[in-house]
Design goal:
Helices cover about 55% and strands about 15% of the residues. With about 325 residues, it is of the alpha+beta class. It has 2 domains: about 200 residues, Roll (Endonuclease I-creI); about 80 residues, no CATH class.
Length: about 325
């Protein structure tokens, strides 16, 4: 089961206690993945589509608890997926749901209020949480956090996307909108933002699972950074040691190490005898001992002498 499916399964097992929150969640579901059908007799039918059986069960339960109405569930199977449709068949029940969800205007026409400040459905914070939860159950998804962080809800119109974006931003979460083919996608990219939105939707188990994954990824990244840094430093140290030994051998084979001062000659011999030793270790071998910077200064001086010899003998 994908991470996204696990979140939906967790959310499908929850039902808001307040009727106002139940209505907000149903309103979001109908807005995002519902169809309102009007017959030639002006009778209304509502159909809600989903590919997730847990989500279909949640729709069914919400409608029963909120409005005490009977619904039908149809299943259409194909080679790739199953499509579940929750149907409110009776005209009176459909009108009841649409009126409560504020999807009918005063003239009985289908109308959706895209405002955030004036929409009675989403005035309370708890109702905003329920609305986001319903929207996510309808058309949302989250990528596998082991690979990358991405949360999105697909909207059919730009106005719906803007409304949802503003609701999410009211919780201080940075949500953006991108157009994808004929749809508008509200998305969150940052791992911390996805943690926050899971908390808003009250998907607490999924939140903890995501946090565990984030911690492990941070630990792995930290270890990799340290290993890469140490590897780079080691390569740098080895390259420097190889160059130092080449210069010392060049001096030895052309003029002899005796041309060096006593201090430089001592370091030169130690470097040849201990090619893998660090500057600190070389300094501790000297008598009296010399610090890392002192050894480095002497080796640089030896390299300059070798370079001068190459130029003069060249």
């Amino acid at each position: 089961m994908s991470f996204s499916s696990k979140i939906k399964e967790e959310l499908s097992g929850q039902c808001p206690l307040g009727r106002h929150c139940q209505i907000a969640e149903i309103a979001a579901i109908i807005s995002m993945c519902g169809r309102i059908i009007i017959s030639v007799k002006d009778e209304y039918t509502i159909k809600i589509h989903t590919e997730n059986i847990s989500v279909a069960r949640k729709y069914f339960t919400l409608l029963k608890k909120t409005y005490n109405i009977d619904t039908e569930i149809s299943i259409r199977r194909s080679s790739k997926m199953c499509l579940y449709t929750v149907i409110i068949r009776k005209h009176e029940d459909s009108i009841k749901v649409l009126k409560a969800s504020k999807l009918l205007d005063l003239n009985g026409e289908i109308c959706e209020n895209m405002s955030v400040s004036d929409n009675l459905i989403i005035q309370k914070e708890c109702c905003k949480r329920a609305f986001i939860r319903g929207a996510f159950l309808a058309t949302g998804s989250v990528s596998d956090p082991e690979k990358f962080y991405h949360y999105e809800i697909v909207c059919s119109t730009y106005d719906k996307a803007v409304q949802l974006q503003k609701i999410i931003q009211s919780f201080n979460i940075d949500a953006k909108i991108v157009e994808r083919k004929k749809y508008f996608v509200v998305y969150i990219k940052e791992g911390s933002g996805i943690v926050d939105i899971l908390n808003v939707m009250e998907a607490h188990i999924s939140l903890m699972n995501l946090e565990n994954i984030r911690i492990l990824k941070e630990m792995r990244n930290s270890v990799n950074r340290k290993v890469n840094c140490e590897t780079a430093n080691l390569k740098k140290t080895v390259s420097a040691a190889v160059k130092q030994i080449e210069d010392i051998k060049y001096i030895r084979d052309t003029k002899g190490l005796s041309i060096l001062s006593e201090g430089l000659e001592e370091v030169a011999k130690l470097r040849i005898e201990n090619p893998e030793a660090s500057l600190k270790e070389l300094g501790e071998m000297l008598n009296p001992t010399v610090g890392k910077s002192g050894v480095n200064h002497r080796l640089r001086k030896i390299c300059e002498i070798a370079e001068d010899l190459r130029n003069n003998l060249g």
